[in-house]
Amino acid sequence: MKFGGTSVATVERIRNVARHVRREVEAGYDVAVVVSAMAGRTNELVGWCKEAAPLYAPSEYDVVVASGEQVTSGLLAIALQNEGLPARSWQGWQVPFRTSDGHGSARIAEVDGAGILAGFEAKREVAVVSGFQGIHAETGRITTLGRGGSDTSAVALAAALKAERCDIYTDVDGVYTTDPRIVPRARRLDRVAFEEMLEMASLGAKVLQVRSVELAMLHQVPTYVRSSFDDPADPKPGTLICDEDDIMEQSVVTGIAFSRDEAQITLRRVADKPGVAAAIFGPLADANVNVDMIIQVVSDDAATTDITFTVPAADYERSRAILEQHRETIGLREVQGATDVVKVSAIGVGMRSHAGVASRAFRALADKGINIRAITTSEIKFSVLIDAAYTELAVRTLHSLYGLDRA
Ligand code: ASP
Ligand code: MG
């Protein structure tokens, strides 16, 4: 069971979490609980680091930001003991979660579940584990897994313990067909395939850290997203993220995602010769800019071409500066850009076996007068780049088109 920041935001909420845990223990499960820091706490800790010095050692940043989870794990252990359950807290280094030394966004190398399993064996002791933290074995230093990393802690621990399920308790009751704030008729999904969830998380659905979904898929950990705000005695259904073979009624499109975090760059009249794409995208890759959609057109004069691509909005200025630096090697003449764009995507494993899924969307968007600036497709999703002003209209149009609206 994993509880996010809003679920442990106050001592009162932590006592409520203890009641959710007790229900599962009484149902016969051995339980390991992973907790986040209280909502807002990690931001506060990050702020203190910046205040202490504009340039701080990442290893010390990890020492500071890991402390939020230490507090909640201890408090939950106390609350569980108060419920009459044997329980103890485990810090990341005690389990241990062995990680890389990439301080601030370390990757888990190995989780040793032996101590926790021994506690189950000896006295059905609930393990309350601080999420987000690990240790780099060689240096013995505390690491953290990147923002939102306690989801990943939970899935990794579930895999190590060979858990039946990983339940992620949060402040929403599951995964929706799209953002209910944009489409009030969005529906909670009962089941989503790992691959679909991976696309949705990558495309900006904030329920789970992307890396946690990758891990769940890799280790086939059924992951259940549900609300901690339910009555612990009467929990409501959430969304199970599972293997696509375990989904009976598969619709062609499962969800519509959108990301405002996009910017478009167009290079006009670059030389149409071998090596140009490498000259453009090599330096961007070296600078860690994640290029997404790429379109190259055949131009009228055969000697030059136009190339359009998208980058994360946060990398827009930096990308333009990098292109300027390589103006000569690219043979660049004119650069155009737009930041008032949004990427709208439709996702569904059913697309593998159905033709014409995307073309229906192009027609529907055209009927609403929405111009498409760029398109990409993959096996289980397609995305269109459009003017940001049309975001809501486009999302609603596609949501209805694929029959996702709640009746
Ligand atoms: N407390 C950490 C954060 O706010 C980790 C997490 O909540 O998943 O990013
Ligand atoms: Mg989170």
Task: Explain what you see.
With 407 residues, the protein is of the alpha/beta class. The chain folds into two domains: 2-248, Acetylglutamate kinase-like (Carbamate kinase), CATH 3.40.1160.10; 256-401, VC0802-like, CATH 3.30.2130.10. Helices cover 34% and strands 26% of the residues. The longest helix has 16 residues, at 11-26. Aspartic acid is lined by residues 4-5, 36-37, 42, 68, 131-132, 147-151.
Strand order of the largest sheet: 3-6-2-1-9-11-12-10
CATH architecture of the largest domain: 3-Layer(aba) Sandwich
CATH topology of the largest domain: Carbamate kinase
Helix percent reads 25-40%
- The amount of beta strand, in percent, is 25-35%
Q: In brief, what are we looking at here?
A:
This protein has 407 residues and is α/β, with parallel strands linked by helices. It contains 13 helices and 18 strands. The model has no long low-confidence stretch (mean pLDDT 95).
List the helices and strands and how they pair.
Elements: E1 2-3, H1 11-26, E2 32-35, H2 41-52, H3 58-65, H4 67-82, E3 87-90, E4 97-99, E5 108-111, H5 114-123, E6 126-130, E7 133-136, E8 141-144, H6 150-160, E9 166-170, E10 191-193, H7 194-202, H8 210-219, E11 223-227, E12 239-242, E13 255-271, H9 276-286, E14 294-298, E15 304-312, H10 316-325, H11 327-330, E16 334-347, H12 357-367, E17 374-378, E18 381-387, H13 391-401
Helix pairs in contact: 1-4, 6-8, 7-8, 12-13
Bound molecules: aspartic acid and magnesium ion (MG).
